[in-house]
Design a protein that fits this description.
The protein is mostly helical. The protein has two domains: 1-49; 57-96. 82% of the residues lie in helices and 0% in strands.
Length: 96
């Protein structure tokens, strides 16, 4: 846990230094653009591939997979919510 706290504090210092330069918004915009393009590309080119793994699972395995997927989805949504709260509290981009 201490290792994670140290990494987190170093990241905050690094982000603070980057924000002093106010260059993060450009990199963030490029990163988000690339991510959106890659996501669309993936969706388009995997649309007709099918799901051979999912088709090979039994009903019991499909139920386990669905429950795990739901749990992971909730964890992701909690992360989005926490990120939103942190952004509203600290306003890291207000200088840009």
């Amino acid at each position: 846990m201490m290792f994670i706290c140290n990494i987190f504090s170093y990241n905050i210092i690094y982000i603070h230094i980057i924000m002093e330069l106010c260059k993060i918004s450009v990199y963030l915009a490029y990163g988000m653009g690339i991510y959106v393009f890659a996501s669309l590309y993936y969706i388009i080119f995997t649309m007709n591939i099918g799901t051979p793994f999912k088709n090979s699972l039994s009903n019991k395995q499909l139920k386990i997979k669905k429950e795990a997927s739901k749990k992971r989805g909730m964890i992701f949504l909690q992360g989005i919510f926490c990120g939103l709260i942190l952004c509203l509290l600290f306003k890291p981009f207000k200088k840009c």
